Amino acid sequence: MNRLSAAPPAIYGGKKLHGQVVQELGRRVVGGQYPAGKVLPNEELLCQELAVSRTALREAVKVLAAKGLLESRPRVGTRVRHKEQWNLLDPDILAWHCATGVNAEFLLHLIELRDIIEPSAAALAATSHTPTQLAAIADALHAMEAATTITHWVQADLAFHTAILQATNNPLLMPLAAIIGSALEALLGISARTSDNFKDALPDHHKVFDAIRLREPQNALHRMAVLLSDTRSLIQAH
After folding, report:
1. Is 43 helix (H, G, I), strand (E, B) or coil?
2. Residue ranges of the domains in the chain?
3. pTM of the model
4. In terms of Cα–Cα distance, which of 136, 181, 180 is closest to 160?
């Protein structure tokens, strides 16, 4: 399947050296350099290759094991787990997917996730937003209007969708902005690049904002669904 190039940074922010090892090994696993079911090279080889100590390597393996990517067994070594065991909503794993090339099937799965969550989130934001939160959505919309490059547009578009999720004031929905943010940037960038004019979707964003501003939940749900449907069509056409 074709891969669509995108490379947002991984999120893992370990301050020690093992944080860098987490990112490198994570990209290799998710990118298929170490296939599912296979055992990683032994510690000595990996330490030499990555120029790190056994301690740093072992700490990194523990982090990746917690994310569902790896498992260590005595006398066997560290094995890559199968994809169905990965925590695919982990921000780092999503980022590594994007950094190693988003395949079309995975991209459509991300769209389906958005279809399930964001229309209902827009409806909830319409009834739950505070003035400050509405202003944050408006600021993102103004930034989209002012964007002169695809990069600026994508950043503003991401801020728009993130602000709507935050405006739900639902403690279980609000962290979703961080969970999908790393991959959403790639998704929005790809959809923008498939359009003749990357601002084609601006009127639909205005309609979503107006429905939220007027506290019209059903209209907000409908307008967000239309916006996402257009994004799906652009990507499928690509």
Report:
1. helix
2. 3-85, 103-237
3. 0.76
4. 136
Model pLDDT for residues 6-40, shown as the tens digit of each residue: 333 444 444 567 788 999 999 999 999 999 999 99
Whether 28 and 70 have beta carbons less than 8 Å apart is answered as no
* 137 and 210 Cβ atoms separated by less than 8 Å: no
- The CATH code of domain 103-237 reads 1.20.120.530
Q: What is the pLDDT of residues 91-101, one digit of tens each?
A: 888 888 877 77
pLDDT at 132 over 60: yes
- Select the CATH number that applies to the domain covering 3-85 from these four: 1.20.1110.10, 3.40.50.150, 3.40.1170.20, 1.10.10.10: 1.10.10.10
Residue pair 224/204 in contact (Cβ under 8 Å)? The answer is no
Domain 3-85 shares a fold with domain 103-237: no
Residue 222 has pLDDT above 80, yes or no: yes
Alpha-carbon distance of 36 to 8, in angstroms, equals 24
Cα–Cα dist 102/6, whole Å:
7
CB atoms within 10 A of CB 199: 15
